[in-house]
Amino acid sequence: MSEMNDIKTIRAMAEQGFSQGQLRLGLMYFAGQGGVPKDEAKAAEWFYKAAMQGEARAQFYMGLLHSGGQGVALDNTKAAEWFNKAANQGDADAQYELALLYTKGQGVPEDGDKAFELINKAAANGSEAAKKLLTKMKE
To answer: pLDDT, tens digit, for every residue of 73-87?
Structure first.
C-alpha cells in the first residue's frame, strides 16, 4: 500500500469514528509522518476523539500533550487526569508519567507512596524507564 493510500485509509477510518484510526492519525500529526505535517494541535484533536472512546494510548498522549503544553494548554491537572485514565487500563507509560507527577506534586498532591506504587505497576507492565528508576532507587 502506498503512503498516500495508507493516509487516505487511516483518515477515512478516523473520520468514520474508529478509535484506532483516530489514534493512528493523531500519531502521524504528532510526529509529522505518513504524509502529514507535524501539527500538535491536530494531533490533540484526534487523540481527544479516540481518548473519549476509552482508547488508553490516546489518553496517554493527551496526558503527555497537557504535561508539555504541546498543541494544548500546559495543564498538569488535566495531564494527571488523562494519565490516570490510561494508567487504570494498564498503560505502563501512563503509570510512569503519573508517578512522576505524584513525586513532584504537579497536578496532584505530592504523594511518595502513590508514586512508588505506580512506578512498581509501570515496571511490572514493562516500562523500561520505571525499571531503571527502581534499580537506581535500590542502589
So the answer is: 999 999 999 999 999
Q: Which cell is 124 given? A: 511490572
**What is the predicted pLDDT for the residue at 5?**
57
Please state, in angstroms and rounded to a whole number, the distance separating the CA atoms of residues 126 and 74.
Answer: 28
49 lies in the same domain as 114: no
Q: Is the same domain home to 77 and 100?
A: yes
Residue with cell 494508567: 87
Residue with cell 520505571: 130
Give pLDDT, residue 1: 40
User: Number of C-alpha atoms within 13 angstroms, CB side, residue 33?
Assistant: 7
Indicate the DSSP class of residue 15: H
pTM of the model: 0.93
